[in-house]
């Protein structure tokens, strides 16, 4: 792995981590459910796709960045949906920014990586 690929992988993890932190902040502190167990269960289900792609984003190969691009589309749609509600508009804006950042970073990583033949 060259330095450019490693830097892109680290920034991809920063984008994914930002999405994870934003969702945790929103679910636990801003919009908690009645019970802590329900809040944690919903949070785990909400971030399960991120937990699936984060380890793959570090590994060599194109699978990690490709799956990250696909998964961040889910969070983009969720962010746009939250953006339309005035009560959660700020979280929606940040979720859209973080998901687009992760998508673009993963896409650039796919384009920069050498082709396997």
Can you tell me about this structure?
It is a single chain. The chain is mainly alpha-helical. It contains 4 helices and no strands. It has helices spanning 3-30, 36-58, 63-83, 89-112. Helix 2 packs antiparallel against helix 3 (63-83) and helix 3 (63-83) packs antiparallel against helix 4. The mean pLDDT is 92.
SSE topology sketch:
Elements: H1 3-30, H2 36-58, H3 63-83, H4 89-112
Helix pairs in contact: 1-2, 1-4, 2-3, 3-4
Q: Describe the global form.
A: elongated
What integer value in Å does the Rg equal?
15 Å
Give helix % range.
Answer: over 70%
Number of discrete domains: 1
The number of strands is 0
- Strand content of the residues, in percent? under 5%
The largest β sheet comes out as: none
Rounded average pLDDT: 92
The total of helices stands at 4
Brief write-up:
By secondary structure, this protein is an all-alpha fold. It contains 4 helices and no strands. It has one domain.
What would the keywords be for this entry?
117 residues, mainly alpha, elongated
